[in-house]
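User: Okay, second chain of the day. Same drill as before: sequence in, structure tokens out.
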Amino acid sequence: SIINEFVKETNPNLIITHSSKDYHPDHRALSSIVKSIAGIYYPVLFCDNFVGINFNPNYYVDISEFFHQKKIAISSHKSQKPDKYIELVEIWNRFRSVQCNGPAQTYVEAYKFFPSFPFSDIRNLLPNSPKIRPTSLKKKGGLI
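Assistant: Same drill. Structure tokens below.
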């Protein structure tokens, strides 16, 4: 299969795919195929659903440093109405930052990992999560 060939050629440390609860049937099918074929050989991380609908993440990545490049990449997808999508992604990634009590003008992406044999802990493969900021009106740093 194409996935087997890709895995043999690239030998990844981690595979990121769509969530099994994604809104699009093609994305759900791909998620299932990737998990079934590659999940025993490589850890599989699931990306956020469109605008976070039906997605309960357990891992967050601060992308603030790269958010401008993300907007440039999105703008190259002319068939996807990039101006509207960029506005949506700004709100979406900002919302994920707020979930982490991130400071204003920070952006976060969300992921889900289901520990399963033989991959119970993949933190060494992932960037550090955003800094934990307590919610307090007296302390500064987070939004709240």
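The beta strands are 15-17, 44-47, 59-62, 108-113.

User: Thanks, on to the next one.
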